[in-house]
Design a protein that fits this description.
2 copies of one chain form a homodimer.
Chain A: H1 16-31, E1 39-44, E2 47-53, H2 56-59, H3 66-78, E3 86-92, H4 96-104, E4 109-114, E5 139-142, H5 146-162
Parallel strand pairs in A: 3-4, 4-5
Antiparallel strand pairs in A: 1-2, 1-3
Helix pairs in contact in A: 1-5
Chain lengths: ~170, ~170
């Protein structure tokens, strides 16, 4: 599958909001499948080269956060693990694992929607994208589609609490 | 493939050194294939349930550190992303991505051989395994087979520098 966010006449480029909207749609879809609804999109020169949702429960894979899956896919698609010219859009602030993956990928820019005060490693608990001791730093933009992203997560957890007492996914918690 | 480290008569259990020796053999093998020689093994109740080497260059995957691959494999093998009862053995101190993955996997114990002063996130730059703000903490043991692990990496980078000027892998750098 291959997405391009087409730009309308009179508009030069798809903007951050368009890409985050795509990440939100991917997140919503994951939520309907019992995953914590988080989505990620990687954009290279205006083209979506990777997108993924959280799949931890489905795959029973502790590393299957949306960001990891999208970065891996982008490396395959572009034929290189170096993603300097890419932006990663993700609906929730990345955890230490995912920020570390972005550093390892030499990611150019991260844009996330809402903060994760319990595990966020871009601005909340750590600022891993701006540590001069590490061998890579990146641009970090926050707040793109913050409210719908936050609402999506709140609604998911509220529905879980109101539900059958099934084991509560604890990403973003 | 399936490894069990058998215990000799008169010896109750394979010990940390045995598992790290296995990780070192896996690392050495990766080095002969042009990867930074790092190996990881996951042990559950005395049995090796996963092992992997760094594959970043071979897969052009920014997330393909030995630890990520081994944790993912362990989740599949055990049918759960929760690895509370497992020990991860790795020949180099994990980076932020891999420490984050170990936290996300609720890893019980990490044992690493030598420190990585430039990117280590277990004790060197960060102590991610012991952050009370995160939702999991783990036992961290360092120094098992420190010298051979350190020598393996030094020799690999010395050979690279003496070599043909090919692009230098920069994991552990």
């Amino acid at each position: 599958m291959h997405w391009v966010v087409h730009h309308a006449a009179g508009r030069d480029l798809a903007d951050d909001g368009d890409y985050m909207d795509l990440a939100l749609r991917i997140a919503e879809d994951a939520g309907t499948q019992g995953e914590v609804p988080i989505g990620a999109v990687v954009v290279h020169e205006g083209e979506v080269v990777a997108f993924a949702a959280n799949r931890r429960e489905r795959d029973q894979d502790p590393t299957a956060h949306a960001e990891i899956l999208a970065l891996r896919q982008a490396g395959q698609r572009l034929g290189s693990w170096r993603l300097n010219d890419c932006t990663l859009y993700v609906t929730l602030e990345p955890c230490p694992m995912c920020m570390g993956a972005a550093i390892n990928a030499r990611l150019g820019r991260l844009a996330f929607a809402c903060r994760d005060p319990k595990a966020g490693a871009a601005v909340s608990l750590y600022a891993l994208g701006h540590d001069d001791r590490l061998n890579h730093r990146m641009i970090v933009s926050e707040g793109v589609r913050r409210d719908p992203a936050s609402r999506l997560l709140s609604q998911f957890f509220a529905a879980l609490r109101a539900g059958d007492g099934a084991d509560r996914p604890d990403r973003a918690a």
